[in-house]
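lol forgot to send this yesterday, sorry. struct tokens for the thing we talked abt
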């Protein structure tokens, strides 16, 4: 089952967080971001023409979905 959004209860508990996009074929990290609410899923929906988007498309063409790891949570925006 692929998660594409957090429930309001979950993202309220997460607060600000740091996340990583990983390529499941080789476990490499190709993007680090910070977010709140469902920000970490936005990259899966947008079609920005950049290296991150190209990598997501390459992973999908290989039959996978990028893995999103939450690295830290419960932070304030400055942290």
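and heres what i got for the seq, position by position
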């Amino acid at each position: 089952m692929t998660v594409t959004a957090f429930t309001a209860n979950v993202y309220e508990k997460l607060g600000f967080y740091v996340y990583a996009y990983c390529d499941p074929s080789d476990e490499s990290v190709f993007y680090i971001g910070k977010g709140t609410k469902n920000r970490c899923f936005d990259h899966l929906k947008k079609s920005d023409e950049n290296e991150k988007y190209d990598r997501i498309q390459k992973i999908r063409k290989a039959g996978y979905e990028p893995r999103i790891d939450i690295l830290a949570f419960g932070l304030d925006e400055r942290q």
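The CA atoms of residues 16 and 78 lie 9 Å apart. anyway ping me if u want another try
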